[in-house]
Design brief:
The chain is an alpha/beta fold. The protein has 7 helices and 16 strands. The protein has a single domain, classed as Metallo-beta-lactamase, Chain A (4-Layer Sandwich). A 7-stranded mixed beta sheet has the order 8-5-4-3-2-1-16.
C-alpha cells in the first residue's frame, strides 16, 4: 500500500485569497515519506505563500527542477538558504543561457544569476545531474530527458540558445516527476516543453503502470495550433486520466477544450490549492 500523497500549489499565475500570484510554478509534495519541492517560481511569491500556507521550505529534502527557465528557478536561493541539506535534481542543461525571440527582440529567459550562484555553493554530494530516468524511491521517479515521438508536439515557443536566434533551443532539460499510488500514477509537470503526450507516454512506459490518476502542472499549450490541441485532447482521452489539473502556461483555449472533453475531471486552480491522493 502506498503512503498518503498531498500536493500543494505554492506558486502559479493565479492565486487564492491572501496569496501572491506570479508567472511561474512551484508544487510542494508531501509523499508521506518526505517533502519534495518541484520548481520554485520566479522567486517573489514562493517564501511568503509557503509561510501563509503553513509550509516550511526548510523541510524540503528534495528539490527538483523541471527545466532551466527563470519562472521555475528564481526561488532557488530562498530554498537552499533554508533547506541546507536538500538534494537537488536537475538536468545539466538547466544552467545554459537561453532566449525567447519575438519580433526580432531577444528576451533572456534563463535561470537567474543568483540561482546559479546558489547551486554552485551546494556540496557536491547534494547535487544530482539527471541525464537519464531515475528512481528516488520504489514509487517515485524522475523521467530525465523525454523522447520526442509525436509528430504534432513542439517546445511551444520561439526558444533559442543564442540572442541572434541561430540555435533553436530543444529544451532537452525538460523533465517530469511521477508518483505511483494505489489508484494509478500522479504526474507533476513544469511546462511540458517535451509535449504533454510525449511526457505521459514516457512516464507510463517507465513506471510500467498505464493508469493515470492525475496530471498536474503547466501544459504549455498557450500557443498551440488547433490541430495540436485536438490531437492532444484525443491522446489524453485514450489515457483516461481521473483528474487533469492545468496550471501556469496551459492557456485559455486549451483549458476550454480540456473542460469540454473531460468535464468535472478538469480542475484548474491557483496557488493555495491542495490535492490529496
Amino acid at each position: 500500500m502506498s503512503a498518503n500523497l498531498k500536493i500543494t500549489v505554492l506558486v502559479d499565475d493565479l492565486a487564492g485569497e491572501g496569496l501572491s500570484a506570479e508567472h511561474g510554478l512551484s508544487l510542494w509534495i508531501d509523499a508521506g515519506t518526505g517533502q519534495i519541492l518541484f520548481d520554485t517560481g520566479q522567486g517573489s511569491a514562493l517564501a511568503e505563500n509557503a509561510r501563509k500556507l503553513g509550509i516550511g521550505l526548510h523541510q524540503a529534502g528534495t528539490l527538483i527542477l523541471s527545466h532551466g527557465h527563470y519562472d521555475h528557478t528564481g526561488g532557488i536561493p530562498q530554498v537552499l538558504k533554508h533547506a541546507r541539506k536538500t538534494n537537488l535534481y536537475c538536468h545539466p542543461g538547466v544552467v545554459q543561457p537561453r532566449y525567447s525571440i519575438q519580433d526580432g527582440t531577444p528576451k533572456p529567459i534563463h535561470m537567474p544569476q543568483e540561482s546559479l550562484a546558489a547551486i554552485d555553493k551546494l556540496p557536491a554530494q547534494n547535487l544530482h545531474w539527471v541525464s537519464q530516468a531515475l528512481l528516488l524511491s520504489e514509487r517515485i521517479g524522475i523521467t530525465g530527458p523525454i523522447p520526442r515521438e509525436t509528430s504534432y508536439e513542439d517546445t511551444g515557443g520561439p526558444f533559442y540558445l543564442d540572442p541572434q536566434g541561430r540555435r533553436p533551443d530543444p529544451i532537452d532539460d525538460d523533465l517530469a516527476l511521477w508518483i505511483r499510488t494505489d489508484g494509478g500514477l500522479v504526474v507533476c509537470v513544469g511546462c511540458c516543453h517535451a509535449g504533454l503526450v510525449n511526457t505521459l507516454n514516457y512516464v507510463r512506459r517507465l513506471s510500467g503502470d498505464s493508469r493515470l490518476r492525475a496530471v498536474i502542472g503547466g501544459f504549455h499549450l498557450l500557443h498551440a495550433s488547433d490541430q495540436r490541441l485536438a490531437q492532444t485532447v484525443a491522446a489524453l482521452r485514450s489515457m483516461a486520466p481521473e483528474i487533469v489539473v492545468p496550471y501556469h502556461c496551459t492557456g485559455e483555449p486549451a483549458l476550454a477544450l480540456l473542460r469540454n472533453a473531460f468535464g468535472e475531471r478538469v480542475s484548474p486552480g491557483a496557488a493555495g490549492m491542495t490535492y490529496q491522493f
